[in-house]
Amino acid sequence: MNVHHTGHALPLPLGGPPSALLNPRHVAVVGASNRPSNAGLSFVRALRAARFGGRVSVVNRDGADVEGALGATSLGNLPDPPDLAILAVPAPLVTRSAKEAAAAGVRALHVFTGGFTELSGAETAAEQDRLVRTCDEAGIALIGPNCMGLYRPRAGLAFREDQPMLDGPVGIVSQSGGVVIAATHQLAAHGLGVSTAVSFGNGAQLGAGAWSEFLAEAEEHSVLAVYVESANEPDLAERLERAARHRPVVVCVGPSGRPATAAARRHTGAPGGPLLPREWPDGVVAVSSIEQLVTATEWHARRPLPARPPRVAVVTISGGVGVLAASSLEAAGVGLSRFTDGTRQALLGHAGQALVSVENPVDLGARYLSRKLAAGVLTALRADPGVDLTLFHLVWDHLVDVDRRSPGYAAGYLDLLLGHAKDSEDLALYFPPMVDDAQERGVRDQLRRAGIPVFETWDAAARVLSTTRSPDRTN
């Protein structure tokens, strides 16, 4: 396939023989030395820790070997050209190193070094343009500059020694390496691996849209998680829309407001101002935090896209919360289930007159902390043929208060939810963050590891549930 940026096309094959970009056989780290603080050394060690199966070489002034990796004074002096070269050299040497890479026959270049458009100077911007021009003319695929690069467990590619090498169906496209690190660790903690993640930094040649299109066409990715700080591609929305025809695309919108936008510019030199959710095309799920990005990505990785949104039953602790839930779901095109007479009778049978409402949304009323009531309501809703999913309001901080009087009560309530979801995917939780402590975070992780989706806002739930298989989807 081809990906395009500013009128240029670069061949980046995923299928067939190992490609230079995603499945390199030979990686060279330019600038690596044996100094403990050397950035290039970190990449060598990361590749070793990831059990990279190919050859690792290094280039430095002395041509010295680095921790078993063959050393040379230039890329051209290596026995054969690397498929992928990682540049960890001072910014003034980057373009010269790129020209050496082109002369040596390197096919893909990852520029870790910063000091380009993120510095907002005319000369640094011109230097980035020279770098792109060098790569374009040589037909080199450029990652960066100012980025952490590739993470790909199946190919033994990593940029940190402590990254979880768990292969899986997720593709990640991110301007930030830190976001890649956080997302891969959170997904791995929930038993979900990543096939390919790319931190592209300034995205001088290939930005979020180009990478998203590229990864979306690969069968190995069932969902894409994208972190974007700013619109650094004029056709970003169109590219994401094309990517969404192949896979669900979840986008975490980065900064909003002047200070955050300025921080994004300093981080990756991203022009264009913040991207707001209203700008995203159909088929793209927009979220506003890494936690929501992980939750939505998990949801789509574990479930095929439906032809229509699920019919939802909402269970809350108060009427006002139910109104907000219904409003968010309706605005996103997600319908509330109409209960059968049998379901209403079953709800009354389980709860007597305790329920404020046996219509949808269900208001648990004063007995909302009762485990018996929760179990009865969940059982009744599961039996309704018009309910595809129950979205249940969990008020963990209130359960912890009960736990102080009746130790073990909260754990019993949690076991009830885990048991209900054990053999089915018809339960999701609305679990707004109320107390930022280790116990609550642990409960969220336990629920997610069990495969129960946890949403922090009704809007986030609505956006995820509204994503459906479009008629022109290719797979």
Work out the strand percent. Answer: 15-25%
Q: What about the largest sheet? A: 6 strands, parallel
Count the E strands.
19
What percentage of residues falls in helices of 4 or more residues? 25-40%
Strand order of the largest sheet: 5-4-3-6-7-8
Gyration radius, to the nearest Å? Answer: 25 Å
Averaged pLDDT: 87
Structural shape: elongated
Distance between the termini: 17 Å
Low-confidence region ranges: 1-18
- Which structural class do the helices and strands define? alpha/beta
Number of helices: 15
Summarize this entry quickly.
The protein has 15 helices and 19 strands. The protein has helices at residues 39-49, 94-104, 122-138, 177-189, 208-216, 236-244, 258-268, 290-302, 319-331, 341-351, 371-383, 396-405, 409-420, 438-449, 458-465, and strands spanning 2-5, 8-11, 26-30, 55-59, 70-72, 84-87, 108-111, 141-143, 149-151, 170-174, 194-199, 223-228, 249-253, 284-287, 312-316, 362-363, 389-393, 427-430, 454-455.
Please describe what this structure looks like.
The chain has 475 residues and is an alpha/beta fold. It has helices spanning 39-49, 94-104, 122-138, 177-189, 208-216, 236-244, 258-268, 290-302, 319-331, 341-351, 371-383, 396-405, 409-420, 438-449, 458-465; strands at residues 2-5, 8-11, 26-30, 55-59, 70-72, 84-87, 108-111, 141-143, 149-151, 170-174, 194-199, 223-228, 249-253, 284-287, 312-316, 362-363, 389-393, 427-430, 454-455. Strand 3 (26-30), helix 1 (39-49) and strand 4 form a beta-alpha-beta unit. Helix 4 (177-189) packs across helix 8. The longest helix has 17 residues, at 122-138. The chain starts with a strand and ends in a 10-residue tail after the last helix.
